[in-house]
Write a structure and sequence with these properties.
Length: 261
């Protein structure tokens, strides 16, 4: 009950922010490799406005008191409307090695970016192989929050597979990316938040969202805001996963991307 009340408060905060958010295209990767916030994808693809062909390479390390996960990932954006992504998730101290293969197609909408997507998660759990699939619809729309550019994302989907308790639930997530004080930080610093009842994978280190939900928050530094780097992506992440629970973890990451055509 305490967890549900906490998540309701987090949801209320995001809804209030959503009413006045405005927009700047998010350039980071979610933890499973898709273009997104922390635990959830957005309605955007990686190079939707700038290149018919572009790639992103990323790494995130997630650590708590008992586990450390290393996630290496890569994505390829195609024709400014689609992307495919791959993530390899290893857990130090165990032989678990998970792979996540994702895809996303952006719909021809105006203003709000809408994408349909999904992923296949090839998981190793206690020495056993498991497979989980997820499909989703993600919408990202611009606004302003106290005159600071931002974007709000809502995700609705469904996961399938032998997932145990909680597997009958509809997947839901919401979050926003706020460009913090652009007059001071010149667009370099983003405050990124999301909450959802699903994690970046069903076998996630850090956010334990499947049965209770998780709120994730952090700072995303967009070094490509520097004019000499504007053709590329160079993003540094410092994040807290499941920040409102006692199993919170921390994540550090970096993403580099470049147009190919």
């Amino acid at each position: 009950m305490k967890k549900r009340i906490t998540l309701a408060l987090a949801a209320s905060l995001l809804v209030l922010a959503a009413g006045s958010l405005s927009g700047q295209s998010l350039k980071g990767m979610s933890l499973n490799g898709s273009t997104g916030l922390i635990g959830i994808p957005t309605g955007r693809v990686g190079w939707e406005h700038s290149s018919d062909l572009g790639f992103d390479l990323g790494h995130h390390t997630i650590f708590d008191d008992d586990h450390t996960a290393y996630i290496n990932k890569a994505s390829l954006s195609l024709f400014r409307l689609a992307e495919i992504a791959f993530a390899y998730d290893t857990n130090r101290g165990s032989d678990n090695e998970d792979m996540i293969i994702s895809g996303k197609l952006q719909l021809p909408t105006q203003g709000t970016a809408v994408a349909i997507g999904g992923n296949v998660q090839l998981l190793q759990i206690n020495g056993e192989d498991e497979t989980v699939q997820q499909i989703y619809l993600a919408a990202t729309y611009p606004g302003q929050f106290f005159n600071m550019p931002a974007e709000t994302t809502v995700v609705v989907g469904k996961s399938f597979g032998d997932m145990g308790p909680g597997s009958e639930a509809i997947d839901f997530g919401m979050g926003f990316d706020l460009v913090l004080f652009p007059d001071i930080f010149q667009g370099f610093v983003h405050w990124v938040n999301d909450f959802s009842n699903f994690s970046y994978s069903w076998h996630a280190v850090g956010p334990n969202a499947q049965d209770r939900g998780a709120f994730n928050t952090g700072i995303r530094i967009d070094l490509a805001s520097y004019p000499a780097l504007s053709r590329y992506k160079l993003v540094i992440d410092a994040m807290m996963t499941d920040a409102l629970d006692d199993n919170r973890a921390f994540a550090l990451g970096i993403v580099f991307g470049a147009p190919l055509q």
